[in-house]
Amino acid sequence: MSAEQKIDNVLSIRDLSVHYSTNRGELNALRHVNLDVPKGSIVGVVGESGCGKSTLISSIIRLLAENAIVPNGSINFEGSNLLTISEDEMRAIRGQRMSIVFQDPMSTLNPVISIGRQMIDIQYRDKKTKQQKRQRSIEMLASVGIPDPESRLDQYPHEFSGGMQQRISIAMALQAQPSLLIADEPTTALDATLEVQIIHLLKDLQRDMGCSILFISHHLGVIAELCDYVVVMYAGEVVEQGTARDVFHLPAHPYTEKLLKCDPASIAEKSRSLPTIPGEIPDLTSLPSGCVFKNRCDKAMPKCDSVVPEWRESAQGHFVSCHWAKP
Amino acid sequence: MGLYFLKRVALSILIVMLAVTLLFCMIHMVPGDPARILLGPRATPELIASLSAQMGLDQSLPIQIVKFFGNILRGDLGMDVITNRPVAATVFGQLPYTLWLIFTAIIFAMLIGIPLGCYSALHRNTLIDRITGVISVACITAPSFVVALYSLLIFAVTLHWFPAVGAGDKGDFWDQVSHLVLPAFAIGLSWVGYLSRLVRASMLEVMSENHIRTARAYGLSENTVVYRYALKLAVLPTVTVIGVGMGFLLSAALFTEIVFARPGIGKLIFDSITTRNYPVVMGSVLVSTILFVVSTTLSDLINAWLDPRIRASL
Amino acid sequence: MSAVLQVKNLRVRFRGLSAVKAKLKGIKDPFIDAVRDVSFSIEEGQTFTLVGESGSGKSTLALAVSGLLPAAEGSINFLGDEVTLMNAEEMQSYRRQISFIWQNPVGSLSPRQSVGALISEPYVVHGMKDKDLKAEARRLLTMVGLPAHFAERYPHQLSGGQARRVGVARALALSPRLIIADEPTAGLDVSVQGEILNLLNRLQDELGVSMFVITHNLNIVRHISDRTAIMYLGRFVEQGPTNSIFAQPRHPYTLALLSANPEPNPDANIERTELKGEVPSLMNRPTGCEFHTRCPFVSTDCNSTFPPVVDAGESHTLTCHYPGKHEQT
Amino acid sequence: MMDALHRISRDPLGLLGLILVVLIIASALLAGLIAPYDPIKLNIIDRLQGPSVDHLLGTDQLGRDLFSRVLYGGQVALKVAFISIAAALGIGVFLGMLAGFGPKWLDNIIMLFFDTIRSFPTVMFALATVALVGPSLGTVIAVIIVTSIPTYGRVVRTQTLTIKSNEFVMAERAMGVSTTRILRVHILPNVIGPLIILASMDIPTVIALEAGLSFLGMGVKPPTPSWGSILNDGYTLIRNTPWPIIAGSIPLVLITLGFTFLGESLRDLIDPKLRKNV
Asked: What single DSSP character describes residue A322?
């Protein structure tokens, strides 16, 4: 979002790069990422495996692996730069102002501690009595559709199905009414019919609480239905960002265009040979020169081979990094 | 839960019976008259006669086995050939010493081993972690009777810090404790290394699991994450290991009791062999086996009780 | 066209509770029906797809058809032979004529064997040692689009996509009549998914092999299959030519599956058929129509009597009291 | 194999372990050549001497040279260790795979057999057997074999069960591969790796057990030299001279450290998942 944009952002990431030092050399997992989450909106992050989604999330909640290096960039969240504040300040934010729902529901909760105990533990900052905290948890479980929450509070995670455990994680995440909820592929591990229920739940809760959601997924249909803005990532870079309508109807980057074509749901008539994107993502420890998508892009030209395309606004509020896009 | 308990107890009774049968067969497998073999050179005709009658050697094998089991069920492990007192009395007289020794050794090992394991898991690959790693490996591998010999040599014979022999007189509690220090140290040392390596590996395993990442993502303090969320899960395997470890502990106790000339079931077995007092040997081995089976069953049940996932699947 | 595979009233059961526990808890039938009263047939050279969510019993059905799981009731007829009555020797020749592509691409390859050995294992096992195994391996690798030197690699050195192609190559080794593919696109990115589907289509066109594809993703079904069945709690709730299933889906569950995978267009108005609650456990199946606990159009006698089989024309059948009720509301 | 040795040499502990093991095995095999004295020849005059130039580790109560006895003692220790572990490994792998791959009832019977043997504390089982059959090297080896079978059997069984749950075993069955071929080609190679490590880590325990039994006079019959019997002499002379204890314990501790460090670095080599934990 350009500076003069009036909407204030809950989260705005500027020029963030993250590298991992591995024995095969330095893996640059994220390179010069710009991303904004306007207040009270849902931003979808689309990206396939290896695009750097999980590194992005770990840097936002600042739980990066030991071998991670952050050479440049800033993450502004409610007035402070998450990369520079102290560990205590960061801890105060985690779970209170910003919380997260992970992908695999079956391994998110501690197997030997009851649900209630875990939900009460994370309210350790509130000065309420144990009974009040317990009541708050019961309310939250009811709001995410867990039947008879009062008695189920003392049960253990393995006594719930995958779908139920994901609802509990959402309840835990929204319990402290954060201003930003990060949903890291929350429905990928669930069946489609269950996924629909969780998406519906997230939409309602967002509307009631007014918090912003950063929704990560590789399922285009879900992103189209749920999100106001869309960010497309490829091999560690944000290649396109804009409103959902712009990105889905007028994709500015060749990768987004091809991705939309590949989604089987968008292919109208039956065809025996489905579109694909041949080739693989480049080795991030020895990056090729120029555009990172060049070896898989059928519109590549000599300029793409040498010059890294800069991040430009090809239309009002629609950003892309591709030489073909109008400045 | 009850069903699991019943199944486990039934299984352990079956194992003890099988062990008894194995012992019985070993006695009878040896060629020649079992009574004569058991009594060895001192076998006077009357002793042979009394032992044969006691073991029912004249009857057919199946009846002998039934008689053998019958006696055991009645707690009658046969007669002590030398003192003519029931074997059960002799064996159960010595048992408490061994139990005290093993109990102190394990407590000592847990008090040092588990925190050490936690510490080196949390400070992975630091210098301290490497040093404790090497030391614990060295402790694990040092044979218990070598450690006993050295502690006897250094702390008792040379430095006279602790008494070298016996278990101290009955009345004086502190005297008994001072007699307990070296033997318990000899047994416990290798367990300190063993438990610290085990807890370290299991902590590292648990710390890398998703639910710990969740706990951190909710800003819980590192102490809560480690000591309430991770440790509770990481300690579970140690319960099973200690349960199964009873076999090794009894073996180590035998050596230590002999080196420190302490009364106990191990020393009893050793002395009865040299004096060819076989009923006592068999009785003591049987009691140790029962002890092992009880401790493994107990550790399984504790594990089932501690870990809700197992408790639910019963 | 003659049918390659004809299955009638197939039933596959598992022991849910041990005999002791069942008596203690007073449950008279400790068995679970993973597959119950399923009938279908696969025509020569065609692709039959089976769509179902987790716990629907689709993989169990595949294992039963291939003889790896015993069928409690019903018949499985393969080119005239009855699979359920085959002795060991007949079963071995049956194994030569069908083959599997497994769900876990790397996990279904024995870790200690090279790709070359893996692909030629079927020849070794069925005693066709006279064939030049190296040449066969090369032929199969090129057929699935992998370079010949891959024969020296080991499974842990392959990417997901490559491992899957090795799996396909192994399945083609003895030129089977029927290939069963369990979730061929699971875990693959959308951009790579198309490759494996195109490969299967191409192989079918070239070799005329029939295919039985199992998946939970309804979207890919439209492009690869001639007939489709929708499975829920071990039963076929709807079955028919793929085009007519997509043109006018009649069973509420099929509707819910279709609307759960919308096309990626923010303006698309999705009249969503959202299901209630979760899949009930196989241990206590709902009464009447087993879908009534989740069906958005449930009404009288759905929860009491079992629904009749409704014929929607062109061998498109389903089991529902009120087929197509969604059109009236 | 060569690249394994190469990688072990990069890990300091592994290298140390390798050197210790090679040193002691060499000294045991070459005992005949390098031992300065005949280990059994009595020499009452200079008995109970401390270490000196001509008696590196001093002499025992019968004046026998402790250094030579230690070297020859190595032969007994290694013979017992390798024979009994090889046998226990063989039987354990067979029974373990049978239990892991076979029908449930067979699994239960084998597990019952394992649990019964395991319920005897090893040393006590050894003493009971020796009491009946009389002390001899053969008895020691037999006892160690019997008591080690459950250790290997249980590990192989768990490994077989985990491998069996992998999809490739189902894939092999679907291709009509016979059970024996699945066991031989697909299960055994995956089980052997970790088992070799377990065996190498188990050698010190077995050697310590032989030494322990000899220490109790239940193992090797005198005068054949064994580290245990040297320690026994040391125990009886503990108030006069510490040297027999030191002499007897040095090789025991060295070989135990050697094999364990070697085993640990081998384990990191073969099982990358474990490397993550170290």
From this structure: -
